[in-house]
Amino acid sequence: MNPWLQFLADSGARINPDDGAAEFDGPRPAGQLPRAYVSPLGDLGLIAVTGEDSPTFLHNQVTNDVEHLPASEARLAGYCTPKGRLLASFLMWRTEATIFLELPRQIQSTVQKRLQMFVLRAKAKLNDAGDQYAVLGLGGDAAADVLKQWFPTVPTQAFAKLDSASGSLIRLPDAFGSPRYQWIADTAIAQQVWPDLARLMTPVDTGIWRLTDIHAGVPQITQPTQEQFVPQMINFELIGGVNFKKGCYPGQEIVARSQYLGKLKRRMLLATVEGAEVRPGMEVFSSADPGQPCGMVVNAERNLQGGVDCLVELKIAAAEEGTVHLGSAQGPTLAFGKLPYALPA
Length: 345
Prior knowledge:
alpha+beta; six-stranded mixed beta sheet; six-stranded antiparallel beta sheet; globular
C-alpha cells in the first residue's frame, strides 16, 4: 500500500486492496449528495512522462492533441490498438516539465509497459507517479468555497486547470447539477490538508465519485472493457476525447472511418437497473433480438436510491425497439435516462 493509501487507512478509511478505492464509516448518502463532499481517488494511477520529446511521443500515440496542450487545460484522450479499440482512456494534463496520464490503477502497469515499447529513440521517460501524488475528487455547490483556502481562484470551465503551491486543480464536467473538481497534490500536502477537508466537507466512498462520473457521461475503460470499443461507441468524441485534425496514432484510420463513413449504429447511454449486481463488461440483450447481445456495460455503480446506474454501450436500434435486459433477454430491465450532452441525430 502506498503512503497516501496507508495514511487514509490509518485515519479510519477502509481501502480495497484490489483497486485502492476507499470507503468510510457512517451512512451512505441517500437521495442526494452533500453540498460539499470529498473522495480519495486511490483507484486511479498516474503515469508521469518526462523528457524533451514527450509531447511528440504521446501525440503520436493517443487520440487527442498533446503537442498543443496548454498548462491551463486538461484533456481526455484514448489509447487504441491498431484496430481502433480502446486499451485505455486518460485524463491528461501537463506541468512545466511533466505530462501526466491518469487511468485506473488496475491497468496502469500494462498500459505503461505497452507505451514504453514505442519510445524507441525518443527522449521520453515514463514513470509510475502514484506514490508521489494523491488524487482527490471534490464536488457540490459549496466545494469552491472550501477550495479557496488553498487555491486563490477555482476554474470555472470544464477541463480548465490551475496550479498553486498546493498542487493542480482541474474542473471536471458537472454531475447532479453541481460542480466537480479534481485536486492532484503531493502526498505530503494531501496528508496535511486531509483533516481540514474531512472537517469542512463530507468524505464519501470512491464509488460515489465514480457514480458522479457516470452521471457526467464520462466513461472510463477498465480491465473488463479493454479492446471492446472504438472511441465513438462510448461517445468519446462528444466529450472532447478525440481530435480528428491531428496526425496519425494507432487505430487512427479506423477511428476516422467510423466518424466520416456512414451513420454510427452504436452509442453509449445512461441507464438504471433495479435489484441486480451490475459490473463493467456484462452484456445486455434486446427483447427484439434475444439470441445475441446488443451491447455491454461500460461502468456501473450503486446509485443514491438503492439501484445501480450505469453507462451502457449498445446498438441504437435496441434502445428504440422493445426492451433491453441485463445478462440475458430474461434478465432485469434497463431503464434509460438522459445524458448531460446531446447525441448526434
